[in-house]
## 1
Amino acid sequence: MQRKPDNGSIIDAVIVGAGFAGLYMLYRLRRLGLTARVFEAGGGVGGTWYWNRYPGARCDIVSMEYSYQFSAELQQEWEWTERYASQPEILEYLNHVADRFGLRDGLQFNTRVTAAVYDDRTGLWNIHTDRDDHVTARFCIMATGCLSSANLPPFPGLESFGGTYYHTAAWPHDGVDFTGRRTGVIGTGSSGVQCIPLIAKQASHLHVFQRTPTYVVPAHNRPLEAAEQERIKADYDAFRQHNSLEPGGADFRTNYGSVFDVTPEERERIYEERWQSGGLPFMGAFGDLMFDPAANRTAQEFIRNKIRSIVKDPDTAEKLCPYQMFACKRLCVGTNYYETYNRDNVTLVDISNAPIETITEKGLRSGGREYELDSIVFATGFDAMTGALMRIDIRGADDVALKDKWAAGPRNYLGLMTAGFPNLFTITGPGSPSVLSNMVPSIEYHVEWIATFIEYALGHGYEYLEPALEAEDKWVDHVNEVADMTLFPQCNSWYLGANVPGKPRVFMPYFGYPQYAEVCNNVATGGYEGFIMQPAPAGE
Ligand code: NA7
């Protein structure tokens, strides 16, 4: 059913989401002289950084890289205080960006987009919200984020729980005090790894319920020295340019040589050096780590040995040892993570063979035993990459639902547009480097690409943009071929949708930021090959 727009006028674009992507998209469209409105479910800017306020929440990409580069002035004037920015600091940064670039009047908070419906007659999108907004726009741009739809598995009995419970991705704004509380954390991905050491310091006892152990490398977070910051700022462009050529678009100091080019002693030395310097660049130690299982096993063994050397109780250490491919689930970056299991008030419960049967009034039951808890923290992750899109009733040409088109997994061209949904863009959607890259440069790349495409199209009298089905099919095949060359698809990760029961098992991100950017640059400079561009439908 068609509904009338609230004010009868047509705007150029609706943007869904006010995180890094939505804010910058608004800025770029305004610079083109276009009208745009941003709807955001949260009560402020920030996207995933608005919601994920759990103790210890911080980015695992260093702050000098996890930041916008579109404005040289912004880059120069903003001072990060730590090597890895905490959630509050990132939120402060995004609020500063919203103010500095005068974006606030384009943002509408506490408003969830419920439906986006394309009108074949007019070539316009009708966007509806839970606050009864009905807006008509030429373009609909999904800046909905990759990790924004929280995954709370349907544990039976949750409603009977007599204590308090929280999801890491919907954390109370005034914080939670676990002092004196018997607490359980379910989940040991990045969120669990970050919050467990801090909750352990407060709780009277902490039970960690672990289904799959993950590889955790130390962050070695520290204050960011002024000299270090100044050195980068002296030639920020060169720093950014260098990083954009890395596979993940971030400075992993990638060594493209093989694990087997060096002696076992040299390999150990290199791993140790990476372990001591900390963070995700551990993945850059050798070029074949994510391609050759034998190479990968050497990193696995190094980390398992580290766990055994840190964790005093051999039984607990063994339970913490992962055996899946290293980093094929997102590598976690922690602070005192393994050390926390040496505390007397922390117990690791291996639920790999004894899933949580039910939440009870007093706690939860697993393996036939009841654990009494005052608080439960669900660190159970996200319906990643597609979850936020699927929550919106998106209908394209001929009233086809995106849910139906993507029932067997997402399909699109360049991760940017999907056939049958004209003028609908996704920023860092599946089929693009997104979560396998430094998100902020990937977002900026997409925003600039989309803005340039829209400018080009409107300049040529085209108001109808859609990828050709053939181009889309080829791109989907290519994304899969590239993924299959790597070890990433080889374990149950959220990259594959494996963490959400019933979700189709498809590897969603594209591996290789520089290669991806090259393809997209060529498509643009070649006159947008693979896209259908036409004048707007005549309408009524
Ligand atoms: P993740 O990485 O998806 O981790 C979720 C954790 O929750 C993981 O250990 C899961 O075990 C566990 N989980 C999920 N469902 C269940 C059930 N039903 N029972 C027990 N345990 C469960 O999410 P995060 O929030 O930690 O991190 C997401 C990304 O945010 C991260 O990768 C960074 O990019 C930032 P599993 O491994 O599936 O066996």
## 2
Amino acid sequence: MSAITSVLVENRVFPPAEASMRGARIAGMAAYDAMCQEAARDFEGFWAKLARDHLVWTRPFTKTLDESQAPFYKWFEDGELNASANCLDKHVGTPVENKTAVIFEADDGTVTTYTYKDLLLRVSRFANALKAQGIQKGDRVLIYMPMTVEGLIAMQACARIGATHSVVFGGFSAKAVNERIIDAGAVAVITANYQMRGGKEMPLKAIVDEGIAMGGCESVRSVLVYMRTPTACNMVAGRDKTFEDVLKGQPDECPPVPVGAEHPLFVLYTSGSTGKPKGVQHATGGFVLWAKLTMDWVFDIRPDDVFWCTADIGWVTGHSYVVYGPLAAGATQVMFEGIPTYPNAGRFWQMIERHRVSVFYTAPTAIRSLIKAAESDEKVHPKNWDLSSLRILGSVGEPINPEAWMWYYRNVGGERCPVVDTWWQTETGGHVISPLPGATPLVPGSCTLPLPGIMAAVVDETGKELPNGSGGMLVIQRPWPAMIRTIWGDPERFRKTYFPEEMGGRTYLAGDGAVRDKERGYFRVTGRIDDVLNVSGHRLGTMEVESALVAKTDLVAEAAVVARPDELTGEAICAFVVLKRPRPTGEEAKQIANELRNWVAKEIGPIAKPKDIRFGENLPKTRSGKIMRRLLRSIAKGEAITQDTTTLENPAILDQLAERN
Ligand code: WT7
């Protein structure tokens, strides 16, 4: 496990290779600097030109940025366009029309390909089917689909008719589905009978049924079901219809509905430090512009590239870099239904060879687990496959440790491919801090520099910029086109969460800690500074997991959740629990811990299962009754306690809470 656990940080610099610079969109640091200067000199002009060059507008915008109601910024507001037209129709009559848009590899290895023309036809027919269900511009549609082309088509079809999609990751629970339907006021749900992952058939429709049955979902008029497998599922008469049923007789053409640039393209729920997940609302113009631009800038996508982003469409990465970005860029992309370890941990490498992937984008967690697999089984080491098609590697979702970076660079990229460590968030809509493959000298573990036009900085609590070398809060000081517009239905929470008064109310606070290095001003993101967890690149709130635990009212009196570092998943969830019965030990403790894990999986989803559950007679609190989270974090890590514990009523609980189950 040396590659993962070694604490040695190689502070090496990798300048862009000649081959990466040749023909790159942004070639060399001078070109990058010039773009940054242009953005600083004429901010609006910079963005206006990009928006005109990269998007097809049915009605041109006349005003680029409206800051009058900051932080509710508006971009290209009087312009009109359609997101789906910018991904599909715009290629009609060009050589891209007959190019492969998607190479879909199913869980069992079956491959299906779709040209741009094929996709346009399928999206149009499905869009017509949505209209026939009475779904209209402005309606919200919840999508709970497997990682399949049909999921992509469903999203594109919504965009085509101006409906706002809200995708819920297929690993989330019935309760999560219920809460999101209610919050978004969804009029329809698009789902599948089952999903296939790792050779297993897992229900989706049954979870939708359960979610709707929890109540409050009267807004849902129809449930459309893609029959992914031959297995029947429950169908509610009048409400539920299969794709086959609704597609029957639908015309092949569906004119894209022009919408205003600020029209909500989608709402995607993500966790915050308090309360329920928030619906991050994105605007059509800015989002699609950014998806397209970052495909060009960060992936330097070229006509014969084969792009593969391994993210699920249920996360923002799947929105930006599966459903919109690659299509807007006219690229060929691989879409994969399954998991990296089935039938074995060589699946990714095998697929890169099979489809001649040239730009590969995945998460550090996946890399770390594949390192581990390769170290214990030679047969799944990437060296067994021909990966010479690769040109650029990308990383996303969490900080990548320099050791994993080096392994990825050497063993996957053959020391030939730049690794773009892209820092961004659901809220930013796309990459905001990232190396450019043909320009930026790379430093393992650093996401390097902001993209042109992104005014990122590291500041103190008052918003004052800190000198390089000092750790602080990561902020973005000026708006950018793909930024979150609001939290669906809760503008006040939006303002409070992201634009704190203490910083002047106009600076975007990311919620991450960061430091810029002294040599280059490169950013190194150190992780969340709020109560948000990042487990395998999946974002969860500590409060969410705590609420789920205390919802087990017959058993749990109190719970506190913290993160501890984990060499595979980045962070792991550690829950400290006080039961409504005497503190269990031994076998009983193990059994209750498992019961609670399964309970949390049911409440939120399996990704939220605490790895570690510990029981105490009570929790460590300050005199004023606040849970001492810093102390709990130390206990979770197994560190020596340096905090002052003299105020603890019952110091014996520290030993109790150190015991793992
Ligand atoms: C949080 C956002 C980015 C899309 C997928 C996750 C962490 C993300 C990096 C990176 C260090 C990263 C941050 C961020 N994060 N990428 N390259 N280096 N940290 O989106 O679920 O909204 O999570 O993921 O902590 O705030 P998300």
